[in-house]
């Protein structure tokens, strides 16, 4: 049997290549589709992310949602820990955070009930392959232990994989939004 870490590393490498090509092509429609989904949750505290490298950009949808309720971005407290979320405002002052993502200059922490989750790959069952640090898995596990928490993967269509090498600790997505569709995964 193959080493799970090696299998995940190979899956990540292939997925990064697909995401890079999709990012270069910049297919339209994803931010608008994400805004449409979020419109059904107006005022519910949510967190997105500040895009890095070839990640799909959720900022237009986050800015629209910020007019109706609190929106945050992840702040990495340290390796092996769950993420914290600091209140983000469009055009608010930012500072450099770990791994090159920008974070609000002043931390104003809160707990979101919806997470817009970046990813490397997803599958048709709501599986998600991230960067390998386990930050979102730990965070979703913590938040879901306290209250229902909706995890929305945001990705290019090209990031879909037939099957992902998932483990028991990997937290499932409730939904994936791409430039062409919205996939829902009943729990």
Give structural notes.
The protein is of the alpha/beta class. The protein contains four helices and eleven strands, in the order H-H-E-H-E-E-E-E-E-E-E-H-E-E-E. It has one domain: NagB/RpiA/CoA transferase-like (Rossmann fold, 3-Layer(aba) Sandwich). A hairpin with a 5-residue loop joins strand 7 and strand 8. Helix 2 packs parallel to helix 3. The longest helix is centred in the first third of the chain and has 22 residues. InterPro entries: FTHF_cligase (IPR002698), FTHF_cligase-like_sf (IPR024185), NagB/RpiA_transferase-like (IPR037171). This is 5-formyltetrahydrofolate cyclo-ligase. It catalyses: (6S)-5-formyl-5,6,7,8-tetrahydrofolate + ATP = (6R)-5,10-methenyltetrahydrofolate + ADP + phosphate.
Characterize this entry briefly.
Its cofactor is Mg(2+). The chain is of the alpha/beta class and 187 residues long. It contains four helices and eleven strands.
Which CATH architecture is right?
A: 3-Layer(aba) Sandwich
The N- and C-terminal alpha carbons lie at a distance of 30 Å
The CATH superfamily title: NagB/RpiA/CoA transferase-like
Number of strands: 11
The number of domains is 1
CATH class: Alpha Beta
Order of helices and strands: HHEHEEEEEEEHEEE
Q: What's the mean pLDDT score?
A: 93
Helical fraction equals: 25-40%
Helical element count?
Answer: 4
Q: Return the CATH topology.
A: Rossmann fold
The radius of gyration computed from the alpha-carbon positions, rounded to a whole number of angstroms, is 16 Å
List low-pLDDT spans.
Answer: none
Strand order of the largest sheet: 3-2-1-6-9-10-11
Can you summarize the main beta sheet?
7 strands, mixed
Amount of beta strand:
15-25%
- Rough outline: globular
Main structural class: alpha/beta
């Amino acid at each position: 049997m193959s080493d799970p870490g090696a299998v995940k590393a190979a899956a990540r490498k292939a997925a990064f290549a697909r995401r890079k090509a999709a990012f270069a092509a910049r297919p339209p429609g994803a931010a608008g589709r994400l805004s449409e989904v979020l419109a059904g949750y107006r005022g519910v505290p949510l967190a997105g992310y500040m895009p890095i490298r070839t990640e799909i950009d959720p900022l237009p949808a986050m800015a629209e949602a910020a007019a109706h309720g609190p929106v945050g971005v992840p702040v990495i407290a340290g390796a092996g820990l769950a993420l914290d979320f600091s209140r983000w405002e469009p055009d608010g002052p930012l500072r450099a955070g770990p791994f090159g993502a920008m974070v609000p200059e002043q931390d104003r922490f809160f707990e979101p009930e919806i997470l817009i989750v970046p990813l490397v790959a997803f599958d048709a069952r709501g599986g998600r392959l991230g960067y390998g640090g386990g930050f979102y898995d730990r965070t979703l596990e913590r938040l879901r232990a306290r209250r229902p928490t909706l995890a929305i993967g945001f990705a290019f269509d090209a990031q879909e994989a037939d099957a992902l090498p998932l483990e028991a600790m990997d937290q499932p997505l409730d939904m994936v939004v791409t430039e062409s569709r919205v996939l829902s995964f009943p729990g």
